[in-house]
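Title: Comparing notes on inverse folding

I've been comparing how different people in this forum approach sequence design from structure. To keep things fair, I'm posting one structure and asking everyone to reply with a full sequence. Here's the target:
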């Protein structure tokens, strides 16, 4: 499949280029000291992480510790509730150890840190899934772990905060600005500038300076590799459509990478939140413009001065004012369709999947479920594969406080 002179049969080898660009997006915009650190990580990734020993150890960890491969589940009752013409399936990353896709790259990043002789891992987290995953990886490898998290998200995601602390991580509360994900990234970067010689910053998505958008995508590609093989084995066909939620976009890039060269429609679902006005949503690809933040060039939501604007989503893991540079590139190429789902539809999908299928999804993943439900009503035939990127245990306190148990009044 070719679009705009891009050969998707070699895409994952061709992109990014050696400077870390996907077309005009990506790169590395850092001061000299941090750039040296990023160059060290890049060199280590291309040498250590491509070695037979590293790959063999990561495969063993995935099988023996993470519980991979995660299965695909046919969502038969949900499909029937939508008319039964379109069959919905879910790639069950909620069954990955620690409850989300995040462990896929965290174990890879922590293993790389171990090989590089680092003593500490540093990261930001929004919904807490990346924080829990990195705390898990740090405990596994015997590394120190600092997790920066906004005060608002700490309150919303109390179960995940407790897990991080139980796993031995130091959770650092961030009280600047809106006290959510963007501020957590700011604080983590500031801390890393002081500790880069002994620590590695394990970015939680396909964002940040090169090599992280590439590295996180590569570690997450196991999702798409497994899903493609499993779906063919289960049904004898490829899915008609693949759907995943997009904040920074790690779960989506993991899934999408397995299907880019196939005749499959691919949809990335952004959080529309409460509406289209600035500050009501976090749909950067849909409503943003090109800009640099946190060391990379992509599409971001800006204020009148051109700075990152306040964003909002009911899903803590999606409220980031930019998206991965590869997503911006794939949008420009026309290979992936990016669309939006609001809070209300996402919460409705959260309860629908829970009650019809016995699967409680993360609110982030519920955006993808909601979009798939709408998409199914527009299609005449075929199948939809949803990346169910995480489970909803972390969201239960927030859901119960704000929406109850979903019982119709």
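Reply #1:
Here's my take.
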């Amino acid at each position: 499949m070719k679009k705009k002179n891009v050969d998707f049969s070699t895409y994952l080898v061709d992109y990014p280029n050696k400077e870390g660009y996907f077309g005009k997006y990506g790169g590395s915009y850092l001061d000299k000291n941090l750039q040296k650190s990023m160059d060290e990580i890049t060199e280590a990734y291309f040498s250590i992480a491509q070695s037979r020993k590293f790959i063999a150890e990561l495969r063993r960890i995935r099988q023996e510790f993470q519980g991979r491969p995660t299965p695909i589940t046919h969502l038969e009752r949900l499909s029937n509730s939508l008319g039964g013409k379109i069959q919905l399936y879910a790639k069950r990353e909620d069954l990955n150890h620690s409850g989300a896709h995040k462990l896929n790259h965290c174990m890879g990043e922590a293993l790389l840190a171990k090989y590089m002789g680092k003593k500490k891992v540093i990261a930001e987290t929004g919904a807490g899934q990346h924080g829990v995953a990195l705390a898990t990886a740090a405990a596994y490898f015997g590394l120190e772990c600092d997790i920066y998290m906004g005060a608002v998200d700490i309150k919303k995601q109390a179960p995940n905060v407790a897990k991080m602390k139980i796993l031995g991580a130091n959770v650092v509360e961030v009280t600047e600005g809106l006290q959510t994900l963007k501020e957590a990234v700011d604080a983590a970067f500031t801390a890393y500038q002081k500790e880069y010689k002994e620590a590695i910053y394990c970015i939680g998505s396909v964002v940040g300076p090169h090599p992280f958008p590439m590295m996180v995508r590569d570690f997450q590609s196991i999702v798409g590799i497994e899903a493609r093989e499993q779906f063919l084995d289960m049904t004898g066909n490829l899915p008609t459509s693949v759907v995943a939620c997009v904040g920074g976009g790690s779960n989506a890039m993991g899934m999408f990478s397995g299907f880019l060269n196939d005749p499959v429609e691919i949809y990335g679902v952004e959080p529309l939140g409460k509406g289209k006005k600035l500050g009501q949503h976090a749909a950067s690809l849909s409503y943003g413009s090109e800009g640099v933040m946190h060391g990379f060039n992509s599409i971001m939501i800006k204020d009148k001065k051109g700075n990152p604007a306040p964003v909002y989503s009911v899903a803590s893991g999606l409220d980031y004012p930019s998206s991965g540079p590869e997503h911006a590139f794939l949008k420009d190429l026309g290979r992936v369709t990016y669309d939006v789902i609001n809070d209300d539809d996402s919460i409705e999908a959260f309860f629908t999947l829970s009650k019809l299928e016995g699967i409680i999804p993360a609110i982030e993943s519920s955006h993808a479920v909601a979009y798939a439900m709408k998409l199914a009503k527009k299609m005449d035939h075929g199948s939809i594969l949803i990346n169910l990127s995480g489970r909803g245990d972390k969201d239960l306190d927030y859901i119960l406080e704000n929406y109850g148990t979903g019982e119709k009044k």
